[in-house]
Amino acid sequence: MQQHLSNLALFLTELRSSLRFLIISLIGLTVSIFFLSSGLITVLQEHLHQKIYFFSVAGPFLAHVKAAFFGAVYLLMPLFIYVLWKALGKPFAITGQKLFWLTAATCLLFYSGTLFCYFITLPYGISFLLSFQTENLRPLISIDSFINFISIFILAFGFIFELPVFMIFSVQTKVLSRQFYEKNRRFAVLAIAILAALLTPTPDVVNMAFMAVPLYLLYESGILAIWLLRLDKRDASVTTQ
Predict the structure, then answer these.
(1) CA-CA distance, 97 to 177, in Å (whole number)?
(2) Quick check: is 236 in a domain?
(3) Measuring CA to CA, which residue among 117, 96, 92 is closest to residue 168?
(4) Which of 114, 198, 202, 233 is a Cys-bridge partner for 128, taking CB atoms 3.0 to 4.6 Å apart?
(5) What pLDDT band is residue 202 in, cutting at 50, 70 and 90?
(6) pLDDT of res. 203
(7) What is the pLDDT of residues 13-44, one digit of tens each?
(8) Which domain covers residue 199, as residue numbers?
(9) How far apart are CA 207 and CA 131, in angstroms?
């Protein structure tokens, strides 16, 4: 228990040391992107083929602020990821090349997830949801709802695509083992199905599969990566010595 508290203290201390820089960077980039936010919203509109409206005086301004903030978070994600892994790695002495590869792999998976959502899941999901319109029921999508909807789902897909890296990290730090992930596949399938049902924009099976199938493949790839890196065997050899 004392060791866990010590690790938590090291993590929070390391994270706090970078917090001010992260906040300043986020605010500065948000202000910069704000002047380009009209173009960003136009790109999103054209990609998803939607007309959007506003229903309050401050609506357009707030939507542009949100779009700029989302853009800043998206562009600064490598920095956020680096700071997070640096703080998480501090208690477990993960530095140098290990820290670099964890950061690189996490960034790659994050952006892969966001692009998968942007080009596949979102267009299909929005098209499905709006297919229920009728002659007497026409959609009027507010700009605020439009930005919120897109931002949440793109970022959510980015985060869940990082599953293999956190699996590797949990084994590297001896929190869990490869055998744990192998024995609990059925629970992983259940958790993935629930997560897909909650996060996908539509309740239909096809759209849920767009998220659930890649996520399960990522789960299996995490187990495979742990085996290829021989993390369990390395731990066993250390224990034997």
Answers:
(1) 22
(2) no
(3) 92
(4) 202
(5) low
(6) 62
(7) 888 888 999 999 999 999 999 999 999 999 99
(8) 2-131+138-231
(9) 14
Number of domains in the chain: 1
Task: Determine the distance from the C-alpha atom of residue 26 to the mean position of all C-alpha atoms in its chain, rounded to a whole number.
Answer: 17
| Dihedral (CA of 71, 157, 21, 63) sign | positive
Burial 120-141 (b: 16+ CB within 10 A, else e): ebbebbbebbeeeeeeeeeeeb
* Chain centre distance of CA 56: 31
In a domain, 240, yes or no: no
Given a contact cutoff of 8 angstroms between Cβ atoms, the answer to whether 229 and 164 are in contact is no
| Nearest alpha-carbon partner for 14 in 118, 91, 98 | 91
Whole-angstrom distance, CA of residue 225 vs CA of residue 233: 13
Q: Tell me the C-alpha distance between 219 and 232, whole Å.
A: 17
Q: What is the 3-state secondary structure (H, E, C) of 150-204?
A: HHHHHHHHHHHCCHHHHHHHHHHCCCCCHHHHHHCHHHHHHHHHHHHHHHCCCCC
- Supply 194's token pair: 């629930």
* Structure-block tokens of residue 4: 């866990």
Place of tokens 């098209």: 127
- Let me know if residue 239 belongs to a domain: no
Q: What is the DSSP letter of 137?
A: B
